[in-house]
Every structure is written in C-alpha cells, then in structure tokens.
C-alpha cells in the first residue's frame, strides 16, 4: 500500500457558527499504479480529502501515511521526499499556473528545486522531452501561459507535476473546466501517463462517466462520509447504497430513448 | 464562383493615447531629461555671486532673471531638478524596499508576527508623516541627506499595508498551493510566486508618489531641515528668495512653479497608468 488514509476527520471554522465538520472518519487506501476515483456531489468533502492527501491542510483526527512517512507531521527530508513523490493537478487551468513564469520555468521548477538535474541545459532538455510526452510543442517553451488554451494549460500542469516522476498524482476535477472534446484528450493523456510511469492517480470528480473510463477503484462520498467503495464493476453494475444508485441515475445518457424511459421510471417512483 | 463576403469582425483597435496623456508623458520625459542632462549644460557661474547683476528681471541673457546673488535663476532650476528628482526617487525607492520587505515578512510569517507588524504599521499610518520626518531630519542635523532618510523611514506604512493585503489575496490563488505541493521553499514561494503577482498596483502608486515626495522634500527644505543654501534644490531656493517676493517675484515664482509642475506631472502619470490598467475608472 502506497498511501493510507486512516479514519481522518476535518472541520472548518465557521465562526460565529460552530465549526462545520466536512470529513467524518474517512478511510481509504491508494496502491501503486492504481487509479482511484473519489466521487460525490458538491460539498461531499472530496476536495478536502485531496487537500489532506497533499498535506495542504491537516485533519484534526486520524492518520495519513505515505510509504512510511507520517504525512501530517512530516518535516525535513521526509517532507521533501513526500513533496517530490506526491503531486497534483488542479481544476482551474487558468489560476493554477503562475502567469509570470514561462512554460519552461513552470515545468522545470520541480527539477530545479529538487535538484534533479544538475544544469540548466539538462533541465531544458528534460522539459522539452516532457512537453512532447504530454503533446505540447517544445518550441513553445519560452512562452507565457496566457497564450495557451485551457486544454493546453492542463497539459502544462500535468507536465509540471509529472516531470519529477511522482508516484501519486492527485487530480482535483482536472477536466471540469474544459470543453467536452478536450476533456477526453486530457483523460486519455492521464491514462497514458498512468501506464507509462506506473503512477497512482487519485481522481476527484463529480462526473461519473469520466471516472468510469479512468478508474479501476471508486470511492463514493456523501456529506463527508465514505458511503461505498469498490471496483468499477461493483459500483457501476451493482451499486449497494441508495445514494450511489441516485448518483448513477443522474448521469446523462446520450440515447434519448433510454433517457426518456429513465425519467419516466423516476417520475413513477416519486409518485408512489 | 466567389464566396459570399463574410463580415469580418473589426480587428480589435489598439487604443491610442489621448492628447492629454501624450502631454503628461512628454512632460514627465522632459523633466527626467532635464534632471539627467541639464546640469551638464549649466554654466559654472550658478554657484558664484555677481552682486552687480543681482535681482535682474527676466531678459534674453537670464531667461528667468537673476537672484539676490546675481545667479541665473533658470540654470539654478535646471541643476536643482537633478537634486530634487534624484532625492525623490531615492526616497520612494528606499521606503518601497522597507514596505515590500515588511509586507512580505507579514504575509509569509506566522500569525503573531503578521499582527505585530501590522500594528506597528497602524502606528506609522496614524502619525502625520511630514511632521515626524521634520522631527527626524532636525534631530539628524538639517541636510538634504537627513531629509531623504527621514522621509524614507516615515513613508513605508501605506506600501506595507497595501502590499500585505494584496499578497494575502494572491496567496489564495491556486498556483500558490501548486507551488507548495511542488515543495518550493517559503523564500521562493514569496519572491517568485506571490510578490511578482502582487506588485502591479504598487507600481502605479509609486509613480504617483514621486510627485508627492517632490513637494514634501521641497517643503522640508523650505522650512530649513532639508537641503541648505547654496544648494540649487527648489525648496531651498524658494526659502532663500522669499524676502524678495515683492521686489523680484521671479526668484520665488520660478522654483515654485517647478515644484508644482513636477509634482502634478508625476501625480497625473500615476493616475493615467491606473486608469489604463483598470478601465472601469475611466471617466472619473
């Protein structure tokens, strides 16, 4: 097991109201090379879990362990290794890249600060290689991100995260802000990378169709609790919990006939 | 067959500069040019007296007349421009450095340090800057250098307060969290990610501040705690000529106008940059 999250709880301060508890006793594990989907509606706590996994916030209770490192209390060399091996891609491809850095600086920053390449020339070569790997033109290295589209920016973000060869990539709704056609490209890129680099991916999403394509394992969250977890087949073909069932029922179907039938069935259900 | 004409959207027009903006820009450029190159052209006589020629009204030989020592007022203004603008730039640069440093420490540091620094800033904001500068300058011994130092150590609070707020906002941006996840040091986080994305507004403020600083420096020199005679600094020039207002107005009006024009020009430059950056302010 690469990372284990052991019954963590987290509250946000909501002064003058009492603190709002957004995670209750969440437990989940991430194994090497596996893609795991965290799904749930807005406010279900999925982004909070992602932030805890990245040590951006600390849960009040429970423990997070990554490859022998106590993530919540990590310092010094442990924290450095954690920062090198656990990376993330954000939802917003506009706000998540520093507008005053060139593509080369953005992608090369990890190499620079973790001293993974000794010289600027070697870094530049690695950046170029990485850009090709994610489908960007290395000639664009000296440009700023404002001239790139949302999909290209997300590729830059993925390259920036992956160039230091992390073992876990946490993606917080990485395609929610993209056009549908571009979404598929980015998802396919992530899947490619997962296979090539034996990367574990934690994929936070509210869109089940996307998760179904990418993730072998799925965790369903509701109001800060894990309501169900299992393999893709278990969750999609045989959901046990009513919340999971309603979540699946809400996925839009491309076939209008099927869609109409479903809506009719749901109306009947609510009428009864 | 020819394709039907498709209406092309008009290419986005690059907005030109208005006549007023061009006027202000050229004024500022002219002032800077005068300050940089003017003194090279000045005759040596501006520091030596020629009593026979004192208090002569403006003429072809002495465009702005001569002062009580018979020195050419025009050339003293030109030489004074360098002293005045250089000092003003120095003051703004120094207090900006202090302000930026304190704001960065406050924004990056722990809560208690932030609180402590902001309370000190509050005190700085509450004190009337010019009076305190006057006190400092007088205590250090009246000289232009004292005035510059005094203004530098009293000018930073607004910069520190504004920048600290802006930096806190910038730190909410996802790319800052991204840099943290990547493992950048606190120093790199602040200097490479937060600060460069927070300075825009302040650059506008600093342009405008040059104008105010010119005025305050001239005032300090005028009341005697800044530049001392025979310096050609404008405030000092007005001070030494003020006895002749009724008999030789040009000795006072010329440097007075120089102070007014310079501070207004830089003030307007600040306003113009601000409106250009934020078009919603246009029309005010």
From TrEMBL, chain A:
Its main location: membrane. Keywords: ATP-binding, Nucleotide-binding, Transport. One of its GO terms (molecular function) is ATP binding. Pfam families: ABC_tran (PF00005), oligo_HPY (PF08352). Transmembrane segments: none annotated. It comes from the Bacteria. CDD domains: ABC_NikE_OppD_transporters. Residues 3-248 form the ABC transporter domain. It is a peripheral membrane protein. InterPro entries: AAA+_ATPase, ABC_transp_ATP-bind, ABC_transporter-like_ATP-bd, ABC_transporter-like_CS, Oligopep_ABC_C, P-loop_NTPase. Belongs to the ABC transporter superfamily. This is Peptide/nickel transport system ATP-binding protein/oligopeptide transport system ATP-binding protein. The lineage of its organism: Bacteria, Pseudomonadati, Pseudomonadota, Alphaproteobacteria, Hyphomicrobiales.
UniProtKB/TrEMBL annotation, chain B:
This is Peptide/nickel transport system permease protein. Keywords: Cell membrane, Membrane, Peptide transport, Protein transport, Transmembrane, Transmembrane helix, Transport. Pfam families: BPD_transp_1. It comes from the Bacteria. Coiled coil: none annotated. The chain crosses the membrane at residues 22-42, 85-108, 120-140, 206-227, 247-269. InterPro entries: BP-dependent_transpt_permease, MetI-like, MetI-like_sf. Residues 81-270 form the ABC transmembrane type-1 domain. It is a multi-pass membrane protein. The keyword Cell membrane applies. Belongs to the binding-protein-dependent transport system permease family. It is found in: Cell membrane. It comes from Aminobacter niigataensis. PANTHER family: D,D-DIPEPTIDE TRANSPORT SYSTEM PERMEASE PROTEIN DDPC-RELATED (PTHR43386:SF1), OLIGOPEPTIDE TRANSPORT SYSTEM PERMEASE PROTEIN APPC (PTHR43386). SUPFAM superfamilies: MetI-like.
């Amino acid at each position: 097991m690469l990372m284990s999250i052991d019954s963590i709880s987290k509250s946000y301060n909501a002064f003058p109201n009492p603190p709002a508890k957004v995670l209750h006793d969440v437990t989940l594990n991430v194994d090497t090379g596996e893609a795991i989907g965290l799904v749930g509606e807005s406010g279900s706590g999925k982004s909070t879990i992602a932030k805890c996994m990245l040590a951006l916030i600390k849960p009040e209770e429970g423990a997070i362990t990554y490859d022998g490192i106590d993530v919540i209390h990590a310092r010094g060399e442990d924290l450095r290794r954690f920062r090198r091996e656990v990376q993330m891609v954000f939802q917003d491809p506009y706000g998540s890249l520093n507008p005053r850095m060139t593509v080369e600086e953005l992608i090369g920053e990890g190499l620079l600060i973790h001293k993974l390449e000794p010289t600027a020339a070697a870094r530049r070569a690695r950046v170029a290689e990485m850009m090709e790997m994610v489908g960007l033109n290395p000639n664009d290295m000296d440009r700023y991100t404002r001239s790139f589209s949302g999909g290209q920016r997300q590729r830059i973000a993925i390259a920036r995260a992956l160039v230091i060869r992390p073992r876990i990539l946490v993606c917080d709704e990485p395609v929610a802000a993209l056009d549908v056609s571009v979404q598929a490209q980015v998802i396919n890129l992530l899947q490619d990378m997962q296979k090539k680099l034996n990367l574990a991916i934690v994929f936070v999403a509210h869109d089940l169709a996307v998760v179904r394509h990418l993730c072998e394992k799925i965790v369903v969250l509701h109001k800060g609790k894990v309501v169900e977890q299992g393999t893709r087949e278990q969750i999609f073909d045989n959901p046990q919990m009513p919340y999971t069932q309603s979540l699946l029922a809400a996925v839009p179907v491309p076939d209008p006939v099927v869609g109409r039938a479903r809506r009719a069935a749901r109306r009947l259900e609510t009428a009864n | 067959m020819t394709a039907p004409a498709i209406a092309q959207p008009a290419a986005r027009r690059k907005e030109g500069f208005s006549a007023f903006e061009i006027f202000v820009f050229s004024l500022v450029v002219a002032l800077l040019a005068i300050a940089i190159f003017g003194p090279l052209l000045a005759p040596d006589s501006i520091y030596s007296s020629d009593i026979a020629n004192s208090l002569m009204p403006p003429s072809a030989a002495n465009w702005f007349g001569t002062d009580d020592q018979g020195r050419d007022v025009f050339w003293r203004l030109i030489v004074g421009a360098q002293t005045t603008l250089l000092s003003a730039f120095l003051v703004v640069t120094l207090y900006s450095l202090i302000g930026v440093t304190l704001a960065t420490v406050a924004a990056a540091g722990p809560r208690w340090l932030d609180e402590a620094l902001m309370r000190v800033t509050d005190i700085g904001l509450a004190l009337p800057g010019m009076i305190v500068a006057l006190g400092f300058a007088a205590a250090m011994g009246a000289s232009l250098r004292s005035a510059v130092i005094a203004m530098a150590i009293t000018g930073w609070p607004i910069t520190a307060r504004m920048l600290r707020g802006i930096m806190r906002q910038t730190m909410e941006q996802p790319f800052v969290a991204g840099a943290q996840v990547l493992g950048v040091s606190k120093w790199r986080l602040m200097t490479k990610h937060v600060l460069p994305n927070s300075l825009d507004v302040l650059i506008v403020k600093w342009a405008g501040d040059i104008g105010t600083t010119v005025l305050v420096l001239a005032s300090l020199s005028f009341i005697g705690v800044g530049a001392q005679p025979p310096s050609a600094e404008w405030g000092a020039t007005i001070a030494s000529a003020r006895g002749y207002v009724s008999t030789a107005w040009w000795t006072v009006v010329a440097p007075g106008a120089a102070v007014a024009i310079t501070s207004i020009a830089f003030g307007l430059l600040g306003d113009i940059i601000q409106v250009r950056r934020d078009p919603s302010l246009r029309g005010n």
